[in-house]
Design a protein that fits this description.
This protein is 14% helix and 40% strand. It has 282 residues and is mainly beta. β6 (85-91) and β7 (97-102) form a beta hairpin. The longest helix is centred in the N-terminal third of the chain and has 20 residues, at 2-21.
Length: 282
């Protein structure tokens, strides 16, 4: 009887330890509701842009909506769609004029976290100068607050990019890495883009396969470690600007955005689909 009791106690203890080691879900959204969950996401409306981007962000079903069925392209419970739209002469409340509008979501003040694994299942369109991204940012002045770019793409379907920006290593940061896709695969398929954020290390992954690590020692050789403060999530779809132009070298008809991609946007064929976003912590 004693041996049986001991075995049960050990089993219970091991089970509790295993349960404690399993990641807990801090946040999850699979965009299965008919409308955007505004308790988790804020929609950015701004006429101010950075990086010489060519779009204004607005809060409209034209640029942000939930899609189902064939429009969700394989996302069983539906998906979030960010879609840039050609809108020549669109004028912001600040009086600035743009020819494109698009969408940007942030969880600032709603979902914020420190450390954990951040993942999203995303499907993109290809087109030079398209600039969709999945990233995190802290509140406060940039770059002092720290920025982690989990997925950036500037329209080249053959690779995705990650980057860290902070004090002393922002802009053309040394902490950036392209992740090429294997032959026969590209950004137009569904992929899971992830970042493991620990107190002294980052690990970036695509489809659960690590491809880049950055530790605190390497960062502090360049500047202050800016990753002990809470961060919020961002999903956005920019067009053109400095980063895409540095890759595609296009200046006309828009900075970093060639005519072929303008036609893609006009045809409604530039989309960022997000099946789900998840944050877990141990």
């Amino acid at each position: 009887m004693r041996a049986w009791s001991l075995s049960v106690a050990v089993a219970i203890g091991l089970g509790a330890a295993l349960a404690a080691s399993q990641p807990s879900v801090v946040f999850f959204d699979d965009f299965s509701a008919p409308e955007l969950d505004r308790s988790a996401w804020g929609v950015i409306v701004t006429g101010r842009t950075v990086n010489d981007e060519q779009q204004a962000y607005i809060d409209s079903p034209e640029t942000i909506r939930m899609v189902r069925g064939t429009e969700a392209e394989g996302a069983v419970n539906g998906a979030l769609e960010l879609r840039p739209t050609f809108s020549p002469g669109f004028t912001t409340p600040e009086g600035r004029s743009f020819d494109f509008i698009s969408g940007r979501l942030e969880s600032r003040g709603k979902v914020e976290f420190t450390y954990g694994t951040v993942s999203a299942r995303i499907r993109l369109s290809a087109g030079a100068g398209l600039w969709p991204a999945f990233w995190t940012l802290g509140t406060g002045r940039w770059p002092d607050t720290g920025e982690m770019d989990i997925m950036e793409n500037v329209g080249d379907p053959s690779w995705t990019n990650m980057a860290l920006h902070g004090p002393g290593y922002s802009g053309n940061t040394p902490f950036a890495k392209r992740r090429p896709f294997a032959p026969g695969h590209d950004v137009t398929a569904w992929h899971i883009y992830s970042m493991i954020w620990a107190p002294s290390r980052f690990t970036f992954l695509v489809d659960d396969a690590p491809f880049y690590e950055v530790d605190r020692t390497a960062v502090e050789e360049r500047g202050r470690w800016a990753y002990d403060n809470p961060k919020f999530l961002i999903l956005n779809f920019a067009l053109g600007g400095q980063y895409p132009q540095s890759v595609n070298k296009v200046a006309e008809p828009y900075h970093g955005l060639p005519a072929s991609t303008v036609e893609l946007v006009k045809a409604g064929q530039a989309r960022m689909l997000v099946d789900w976003v998840r944050v877990t912590a141990r």
